[in-house]
Amino acid sequence: MRKGVLASLLAVAGWTVAACTGAAGDAAQRMTVEAQDLAFSPTRLEMRAGEPVVLTLKNNGALEHDFSIFEMPLEGTAEETGGSGHGHGGAEEPALHVSALGGQSATLEFTASTPGTYDFWCTVAGHKEAGMTGTLVVRAPE
Ligand SMILES: [Cu+2]
Questions:
Q1: Rounded to the nearest whole angstrom, what is the distance from the C-alpha of residue 95 to the centroid of ligand 1?
Q2: 59 CA to middle of ligand 1, Å?
Q3: Which residues does residue 136 pair with via DSSP β-bridges, in sequence order?
Q4: 62 — alpha (psi -120 to 50), left (phi > 0) or beta?
Q5: With contact defined as beta carbons under 8 Å apart, do 94 and 69 qualify?
Q6: With 0-12 CB in 10 A as exposed, 13-18 as middle and 19+ as buried, what is 101?
Q7: Ligand 1 midpoint to CA 136 (Å)
Q8: Which of 61, 94, 119, 120 is the most buried (most CB within 10 A)?
Q9: Ligand 1 center–CA 92 separation, angstroms
Q10: How far is the CA of 141 from the centre of ligand 1 (A)?
């Protein structure tokens, strides 16, 4: 019994270390999306499936902005760091989401699993309609 508990604890500890080290590391595909009031730059991102991505959202505007993709298959779960932490009020949660207050930056680590073209936009009310949209292209692994 005790042995079983210890093994479980070790398994949890091992998992935690792996999570902290991050799937990303040096080999990650690093990219930055800048947000203005009210646009993204660039509006087109490309990445490879199966390889970790570290995406930085740099908010150069005064308003809060986010980068969201509602439906996109991932390997594991996305990890947001330094975001403004706004919620979506119990509405549908995006598969990918990173938010930043005006003048701040936040990062999102994730791994896309499936090649395809995905639309991203800012979910702050009215921003998508004002043109805060873009396209993320996931290419097949090399
Ligand atoms: Cu916005």
A1: 17
A2: 9
A3: 45, 118
A4: alpha
A5: yes
A6: middle
A7: 17
A8: 120
A9: 18
A10: 31
- End-to-end alpha carbon distance in the chain: 47
In the three-class reduction of DSSP (H, G, I as helix; E, B as strand; rest coil), residue 42 is classed as: coil
Q: HEC string of 45-112?
A: EEEECCCEEEEEEEECCCCCEEEEECCCCECCCCEEECCCCCCCCCCCCCCEEEEECCCCEEEEEEEE
Residue 34 CA to ligand 1 center (angstroms) comes to 11
Copy the structure tokens of residue 23.
Answer: 């799937």
Cα–Cα distance measured from residue 123 to residue 104, given in angstroms and rounded to the nearest whole number: 17
For residue 61, the CA-to-ligand 1 centroid distance in Å is 9
